[in-house]
Amino acid sequence: MTTYSEFHRRSVGERDAFWRDEAKLIDWETPFSDVLDYSRPPFAKWFVGGRTNICHNAIDRHLASRGEQTALIYISTETGQQRSYTYRELAAEVNRFAAMLKAQGAGRGDRVLIYMPMVAEAMFAMLACARIGAIHSVVFGGFAAASLATRIDDARPKVMVTSDAGMRGGKPVPYKHLVDESIRLAQYPPAKVIIVNRGLDAAMNIVAGRDLDYATLRTQHMDALVPCEWMESSEPSYILYTSGTTGKPKGVQRDTGGYAVALASSMRRIFCVEPGETMFTTSDIGWVVGHSYIVYGPLINGSTTIMYEGLPIRPDPGIWWKIVAEHKVKTMFSSPTAIRVLKKQDTAYMKAHDLSTLKYVFLAGEPLDEPTARWASDSLGVAIVDNYWQTETGWPILSAQLGVQETPRKFGSPSFPVYGYDVRLLHEGTGKEVGANEKGVLVIKPPMPPGCMTTVWGDDDRFVKTYFSDFPQDWAYSTFDWATRDAEGYYFVLGRTDDVINVAGHRLGTREIEEAVQAHAGIAEVAVVGVADALKGQIPVAFAVVKDAATVATPEGVAKMRKEVMDTVDRQLGAIGRPGAVHFVTVLPKTRSGKLLRRSIQALAEGRDPGDLTTIEDPAALEQIRIALAGK
Ligand code: ATP
Ligand code: MG
Question: Ligand nearest 394 Cα, by number?
């Protein structure tokens, strides 16, 4: 059996031979002539001359062997709807959608903006775009009209696809209304808007000549068969914006062939899902994890995918485990935030279900703290796999690759570089590689492997300037994250490079301090930011959520808890990391993808404007920070 290190060595050392083999996992209409064209660094073109289609690989090629197998299970605990689609049924729906898009004039290279809640039709729309060679730009439902308008103007879509409304916690959230508003604000609005009407918003406004009803169009194209457009491997498949945690989102452009190969390969070697087995990814189609592992990855692999609309704790905190049991899920993919929510619930909800089919839980999106990883591991008894990646890369950068080798995991570490990624840790000042256990900026030595972003949509300069300018002496793609590597080669991600706190000349990652605070058993969640201080440069300030609100219900309780937290940090990290202040709140400000908005917290703590808040989940969380700071 090939061991991980040999596998990885081959993937970068004998790159062409390695990826030529991996490329066999998908169908090519025309074989590629060269594995890689890297004549114009840092732009990489994979599988040059090859022609393929992602929709063909996700659907058509499975029809002969698994046409009657379930491809998609759609579950909404918001509307109570549940539907399954076989590969054959999915093919029919996607053909219908493709015909509708073509009838509106959308074709190869045209953009289609998808602003949809978690409904099966959103997936049909994405696959339909892939089928006809149109470039989709899925915008997370819930972004405000102004954010949607900037994305419309950036992509200039011919058609938009939306719904009347989404549902969250039992309440309808208007979508179409927002689309109308964004089109009013946009300079380059689409000519047509297709609306999947769920009957949730009776007040929805219809613009004659522009707005089209999906159900009506569907009946018109019931028996449509739309051939797949054969795309050159490096032609764009989609645009997707980063989460915007650190500022203005970047329009990530993805290719076709490289992406399909990376997904097919990762399904086997990282996510360990076989064709015919079921994967449950709890993300949203508006995020990269949703693109790669709700929609394309499982389908390209001939697996069954689950698409879930709803919260993890409604109707009760056992809902995800019920889904796992009912649909015999083998691999689950979620986020540390979601697991922390479930960790606060009674484990009886978990124990009530037969989870014997579940073998792997993958978690990504933000640091997976050790207590959370340990809790998940102890209570589920399955492999908990932390994996680290970015919208930009489209698939994991660091992860255990259990389909290659069953390497032991260390809590708090996403293990090793994924094959294809030449990962280095560079000293911020000198640009030299750091030694074991020394902090460095995590960079990838290009060419970036298949599947990674090929450029910033419409802006090659921005691509080079944003990602490849930090270490000009040598090309290096910067992730803007700090990490260390231990003597055994395990990586530990410490946080973003702009989340480093400089306390009296000592550089501390906010994550290090957060982990130390979380070592206190009474703390559920915490955010630490560096606040400017005339004497020390910066001092860490913590905003913590306690597990039991009663512990901080009185001034004495608050004082006691503060002292305990500070003592815990002293023990874990040393006095240098001790927060200058510890505030207690009931909710932390996060982006809608569950990432802490440290930049906004820090701004408030320094008396500045919290900045662009279009991606915030709950504005009331910032209000709590304000109140906590004022009450000090
Ligand atoms: P923007 O780039 O617009 O500021 P963002 O970086 O939050 O937004 P994403 O691409 O969704 O957008 O997030 C990628 C980032 O999430 C990584 O760079 C890293 O900081 C963090 N991250 C993802 N997975 C992990 C993980 N397993 N451990 C630690 N951090 C992680
Ligand atoms: Mg980022």
Answer: 1
